[in-house]
């Protein structure tokens, strides 16, 4: 008659699971279950004492679920038991003295801090998958397309109004229209450029498949020019550079936003596509040049007005002119805009 023996068992844990590895080759007639919070294992196979019947019982330290999953391979039996409550156990069994057949599974062993990091990564992955599933939901896609279409339509109408208004005024008033552009156009330009901040958020939250950095550089750069360089200095309002900055910005956008609008309804108009990817090649560098001219012209104004001056301790002096910031900003602006050009060419 065959003698019933105990196999070698190795264990490890996570906050939600108990992992057991039973060293039993070619295990057959498996009977594994949890009864009264005790794992009971019976099987036939080749273990430490050769081909025999093997069994063991493990009374758990804390409550576990009765559902047990197991997978038998040629060399071992892997068992997973779910904890009733997520948490870290000081030991596996109810009795303090560890059974002789039980040992740590160092291949899967982690300490509590590593397990917490693993749990956080698991939660992040789960949240990411949930977000991806929501993004792929047909109702969400319809809502997203509706939102993007509306946004691009509003921006198209705003920049179209700017472009058409400036063009008509140029034909009617000629050179005189260069000097009052800010007074007639700035309100709509303020609105459009503030609204353009939505593009950075769309890229950040994955609403659109676009790089965050180029969108951020362009939106922040334009708003800096519009609100700080042009908007805060009354002396800059009547300068012709305002006309060129506004006209070049709007010339680019009246082709970009219709391209995005058509994409929202899965439609392509080849002329718009060609213009969207071609017209910016000459206009974008010209726009950067106009922005640089505006910055250079504002430096002397900031020096005289002391607007936005940076206060210093009395031992060092009264203040530093904001123009010092512009001397640093100017090359950074050019580098940033060149980086956007390289990224767009790469895409």
TrEMBL record:
Any Pfam family matching the protein: PTPLA
CDD domains reported in the protein's UniProt record: p23_hB-ind1_like
All copies of domain CS, residue ranges: 4-93
Entry's family note: Belongs to the very long-chain fatty acids dehydratase HACD family.
Superkingdom of this protein's organism: Eukaryota
Metabolic or biological pathway: Lipid metabolism; fatty acid biosynthesis
Function: Catalyzes the third of the four reactions of the long-chain fatty acids elongation cycle. This endoplasmic reticulum-bound enzymatic process, allows the addition of two carbons to the chain of long- and very long-chain fatty acids/VLCFAs per cycle. This enzyme catalyzes the dehydration of the 3-hydroxyacyl-CoA intermediate into trans-2,3-enoyl-CoA, within each cycle of fatty acid elongation. Thereby, it participates to the production of VLCFAs of different chain lengths that are involved in multiple biological processes as precursors of membrane lipids and lipid mediators. Catalyzes the third of the four reactions of the long-chain fatty acids elongation cycle. This endoplasmic reticulum-bound enzymatic process, allows the addition of two carbons to the chain of long- and very long-chain fatty acids/VLCFAs per cycle. This enzyme catalyzes the dehydration of the 3-hydroxyacyl-CoA intermediate into trans-2,3-enoyl-CoA, within each cycle of fatty acid elongation. Thereby, it participates in the production of VLCFAs of different chain lengths that are involved in multiple biological processes as precursors of membrane lipids and lipid mediators.
A single MF term (Gene Ontology): very-long-chain (3R)-3-hydroxyacyl-CoA dehydratase activity
Keyword set, alphabetical order: Coiled coil, Endoplasmic reticulum, Fatty acid biosynthesis, Fatty acid metabolism, Lipid biosynthesis, Lipid metabolism, Lyase, Membrane, Transmembrane, Transmembrane helix
Protein name in UniProt: Very-long-chain (3R)-3-hydroxyacyl-CoA dehydratase
Bilayer-crossing regions: 148-168, 188-208, 215-234, 240-259, 279-300, 320-343
Catalysis: reaction(s): (3R)-hydroxyhexadecanoyl-CoA = (2E)-hexadecenoyl-CoA + H2O; a very-long-chain (3R)-3-hydroxyacyl-CoA = a very-long-chain (2E)-enoyl-CoA + H2O
Tagged with keyword Lipid biosynthesis: yes
Topology versus the membrane: Multi-pass membrane protein
EC number: 4.2.1.134
Gene3D superfamilies registered for this protein in UniProt: 2.60.40.790
Gene Ontology terms: cellular component: endoplasmic reticulum membrane
Species of provenance: Salmo trutta (Brown trout)
InterPro entries: CS_dom, HSP20-like_chaperone, Tyr_Pase-like_PTPLA
Keyword Transmembrane helix: yes
EC category: lyase
Subcellular localization: Endoplasmic reticulum membrane
GO terms of biological process kind: fatty acid elongation; sphingolipid biosynthetic process; very long-chain fatty acid biosynthetic process
């Amino acid at each position: 008659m065959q003698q019933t023996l105990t196999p070698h068992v190795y264990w490890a844990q996570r906050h939600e699971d108990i992992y057991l590895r039973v060293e039993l080759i070619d295990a057959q007639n498996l009977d594994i279950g949890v009864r009264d919070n005790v794992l009971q294992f019976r099987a036939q196979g080749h273990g430490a004492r050769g081909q025999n019947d093997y069994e063991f019982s493990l009374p758990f330290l804390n409550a576990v679920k009765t559902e047990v999953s197991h997978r038998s391979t040629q060399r071992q039996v892997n068992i997973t038991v779910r904890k009733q409550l997520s948490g870290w156990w000081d030991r596996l069994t109810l009795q303090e003295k560890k059974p002789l057949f039980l040992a740590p599974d160092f291949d899967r062993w982690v300490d509590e801090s590593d397990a917490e990091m693993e749990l956080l990564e698991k939660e992040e992955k789960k949240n990411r998958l949930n977000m991806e599933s929501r993004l792929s939901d047909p109702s969400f896609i319809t809502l997203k397309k509706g939102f993007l279409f509306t946004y691009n339509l509003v921006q198209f109408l705003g920049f179209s109004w700017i472009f058409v208004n400036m063009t008509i005024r140029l034909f009617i008033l000629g050179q005189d229209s260069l000097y009052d552009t800010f007074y007639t156009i700035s309100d709509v330009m303020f609105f459009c450029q503030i609204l353009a901040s939505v593009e950075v958020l769309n890229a950040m939250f994955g609403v659109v498949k676009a790089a965050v950095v180029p969108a951020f550089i362009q939106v922040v750069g334009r708003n800096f020019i519009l609100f700080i360089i042009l908007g805060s200095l009354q002396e800059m309002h009547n300068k012709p550079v305002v006309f060129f900055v506004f006209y070049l910005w709007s010339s680019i956008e009246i082709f970009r936003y219709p391209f995005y609008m058509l994409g929202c309804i899965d439609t392509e108009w080849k002329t718009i596509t060609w213009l969207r990817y071609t017209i910016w090649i000459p206009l974008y560098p010209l726009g950067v040049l106009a922005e640089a001219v505006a910055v250079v012209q504002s430096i002397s104004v900031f020096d005289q007005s002391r607007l936005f001056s940076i206060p210093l301790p009395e031992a060092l002096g009264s203040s530093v002119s904001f123009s010092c910031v512009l001397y640093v900003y100017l090359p950074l602006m050019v580098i940033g805009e060149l980086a956007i050009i390289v990224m767009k060419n790469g895409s």
